[in-house]
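Q:
Just now I want nothing more than another pair of eyes on a protein record. Here is the record:
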Amino acid sequence: MLDATDEKLLRLLTANSREATSSLARKLGLSRSTVQERINRLIDRKVIAGFTVKTHEEYEGKLITAHVLVSIDQKYAQQAIGLMKTHSHIKTMYVVSGAYDLIAIVKAPKMEEIDQTLDFILGINGVNKTNTSLVLSAKKES
């Protein structure tokens, strides 16, 4: 498990993965080399998978979001999921129980791109049907 310092370091990196090691060291009361060692250890322990860009909420707020329920013939499920992973507007996919097999979260700046993404999904071999809900507003996001 993580100790309190590792948890604080992880929170700081989650907030700003580009923050300089020297700045992190000051905030944690540690040396730069100790912070770098802790980061390397978190990577080695598979706590940190990578460092990425977090888009600004102002940009995110301008994107159209759609939740797409997808029914897939199970013979083609892995192939269909693999193809969906390659599409840039499909941001997240969840395998779910119930009438549908998958929920795809689609985000794009224009409705035309949402429509093209839905056509892409429906064109995949093994996809039987979809049911799409557009997000009107977000009340809480993490």
About this structure: The chain has two domains: 4-44, 57-134. Helices lie at 4-15, 21-28, 32-44, 57-62, 77-85, 111-122. The radius of gyration is 20 Å.
